[in-house]
Q: What sequence folds into this?
RNA sequence: CGAGCUGGCCGGGCGGCCGCGUCGGCGGUCCCACCGGACCGCCGCCGAGGAAAGUCCGGACUCCGCAGGGCAGGGUGGUUGUCAACGGCAACCCGGGGCGACCCGCGGGAAAGUGCCACAGAGAACAGACCGCCUCGCACGCAGGUGCGGGGUAAGGGUGAAACGGUGGUGUAAGAGACCACCAGCACCCCGGGCGACCGGGGUGGCUCGGUAAACCCCACCCGGAGCAAGGUCAAGAGGUCCGGUCGCGAGACCGGGCUGCGCAGGCGUUCGAGGGCGGCCCGCCCGAGCCUGCGGGUAGACCGCACAGAGCCUGCCGGCGACGGCAGGCCGAGAUGGAUGGUCGCCGAACGGCGCGCCGUGAGGCGCCCGGGAACAGGAUCCGGCUUACAGGCCAGCUCGUCCG
């Protein structure tokens, strides 16, 4: 799972990643990636709002996403910040389905990122 | 064996691989004058619920206040206990339901006052003559009687949740607690029992009095306010001011440091006193030079609180009908802060489903096998005691009623 060091914790970091980062949307989730100079390893955060479901459902979705994000984090550059925002259909999706959407969202966000930077 | 009542408990299990958080230990790297700290790795312990939920009560804890008194406001509502406390719990009382085990009750006062009682019905709260019954007068008629008008009457009919006690008799033109007996009910008094709510018995009285207080209200008792974003420490901070330095002829600009903690506008006020203590108001007392409103701006980071030896949990004994209390021994049980307790695979698996197969039974159906299926409600966030609500299903104990056998 995600060690504490590679988590996003600050409110303004979340805000800037969602606001200024590159988006990759899928039906069950949205991936935001932003590069901040001086980063010491990629970090990630999750957003699961009340629209997704009750407390039990939200926690289940967050746990599954955490497990899915962890191995994919190594593939990102060390100055990357990642935010995965779950949408209501994620509530009753399996881990395999979430993985599919995560990979797809990540791919298109990274493509936009490399296009804009260069 | 069937039907039921009550109480308690559990609420998916096992394993492989990969992970997360707190704490502890060991090792390494780095910072450091010291104390110590940061990061990494390995090992070990522990790591969601019976409701963690709703946030409905009660407390612990923290801050504000403590000079009071009155009014207002809120809460509770049979009694006696129990508890840190409670609107909780226990036992009992009363009323209602059930053959019973048991269950249900927002259970003070309606004879202090006020309000409200739909529809139906003639009439609904100082009752009420629609039909009926009785009687008087007049008219008609030989008569039984009929019609019109006046009066008496709550026994009967009909309406209603409810029609102003019930049954029998005396009485009367017909009737009526008008009177009498018994019964029910009410008020008061006496005796006995019980800590008490209340129960049992007797007497007297006028003869009878509706419901609603989760309508106002009355009575008794209780109640300061805000809440862990409480609160504390540190850091940062916009602006102001002072000192020093640099640049500049100068106005000033920039840098560093100290103190303070913002700026602008408007209003009210400084012994004719705003405002605060004071929370709704008043009186009183004390403090007293600032306070209020609008606009703009800043902060919401870290640590402590906070992971706690406690109204703690488990076992046994004792007291008590019980809630609970006492004593002895043992145990230490999550602590995150964008929020850990998981992901994935395999095996086993309850409910449930199947024109499936076999056996038993007259039958509804039951049992076994096979196949499918794959677990309810729901996750801490300062901590406890309760209440309420949600919940697939399972287990245990005690008790009641019925049937059969002995």
A:
């Amino acid at each position: 799972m995600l060690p504490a060091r590679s988590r996003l914790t600050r409110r303004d970091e979340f805000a800037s990643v969602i606001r200024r980062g590159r988006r990759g949307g899928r039906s069950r989730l949205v991936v935001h990636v932003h590069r901040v100079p001086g980063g010491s390893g990629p970090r990630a955060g999750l957003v699961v709002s009340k629209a997704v479901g009750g407390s039990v459902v939200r926690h289940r979705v967050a746990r599954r996403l955490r497990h899915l994000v962890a191995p994919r984090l190594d593939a990102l550059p060390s100055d990357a910040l990642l935010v995965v925002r779950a949408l209501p259909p994620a509530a009753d999706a399996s881990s395999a389905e979430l993985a599919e959407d995560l990979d797809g969202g990540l791919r298109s966000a990274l493509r936009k990122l490399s296009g804009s930077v260069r």
Remarks:
- The two ends of chain A are 33 Å apart (CA to CA).
- Strands of chain A lie at 22-25, 29-35, 43-48, 80-86.
